[in-house]
Amino acid sequence: MPYPILTLPYPFAQRLCQLLTPEELENLQTAAAHEIGQLKPIVQSMRSKLVIFYAINSKVVMNLVNHSIRTSVYKTSYLKCDVLGFHQLNESMFKKSNFSHLYFKAKKLGFWGCDISITFLKTVALMIPAIHQLNQLDLSFSQRIDEAIKLPFIFHYFPNLLCFKTSRAYKGWVNDLLDLNIGGLSFFYIKHTNFDELFSFKAEQLYNFIQKQQSKFMISINYKYSADANTTEIKRSIVTLLKPKFQIVKKGVGKIELNIASTPFNQEQLRFDYKT
């Protein structure tokens, strides 16, 4: 039986449609059936496994991969997808696009080769009102990440992440995770080129953070060093840092995956687990 929305006072029913998110309005349309016809706007939605934004001749286009749709203007306001991606874009380019009216329900959000400012990331976050559905955020292939984008900002706008990847660390990043009381993650990936910033934590802090995550949680710490660096000294410093709480393991996955490299072709990997 349809929900009798038109029994509500008309101004309230009309205002209700304006206040709801696209997902909530679509659910209301389903519940109210034909009665919703008198109340605008009507939400039109589409589902695509993968939606990617990128630029062609300086114009931002959207590609609904499953439907072979590529366009710079799209009338449907609500898109449901597994993966929402942005490729080689920045705040200025996206601001000039014709997609400010769009809302998404997505499970994974990724940026590849993008220049990510705090405004750009916030704009995208606000396009995903069904924020509880988004559980993966990948910033690890970004060209640049604004220094103002720190973990408190990330977990404020994306509060239900299970998997997070980033290509930027800063002094105190593990301490921020502890202060935020972040828990229940399945995977955390971080890479950086500054040793002091990447390893600006104590073993006990990292241990306390890992203890709050899922039982099969793993953190991947990736350090890119300069070609003339002493790799033996780098590894010794890291092992010394982690030694109070962790030990190197030869078999199994462990809780910490450490990768050090100067290029993608000379990567060395160490795995650590809780000290016994």
Provide structural commentary.
The protein is α/β, with parallel strands linked by helices and 276 residues long. Among the domains are: 1-43; 169-276, no CATH class. Helix content is 27%, strand content 30%. It has 9 helices and 15 strands. The strands form 2 sheets. Strands 1, 2, 3, 4, 5, 6, 8, 10, 11, 12, 13, 14 and 15 form a 13-stranded mixed sheet that branches. The chain has a two-stranded parallel sheet with strand order 7-9. Helix 3 (91-95) links the parallel strand 5 and strand 6. Helix 6 (173-179) crosses helix 8. The longest helix has 12 residues, at 231-242. The mean pLDDT is 87.
Keyword list:
276 residues, 13-stranded mixed beta sheet, alpha/beta, two-stranded parallel ribbon, elongated, 9 helices, 27% helix
Number of strands: 15
**Can you count the helices?**
9
H/E element order: HHEEEEEHEEHEEHEHEHHEHEEE
User: Would you tell me the overall average pLDDT?
Assistant: 87
Low-confidence stretches: none
Strand content: 25-35%
Rg computed from alpha carbons, rounded to a whole number of angstroms: 23 Å
Q: Which structural category do the helix and sheet elements fall into?
A: alpha/beta
Share of residues in helices:
25-40%
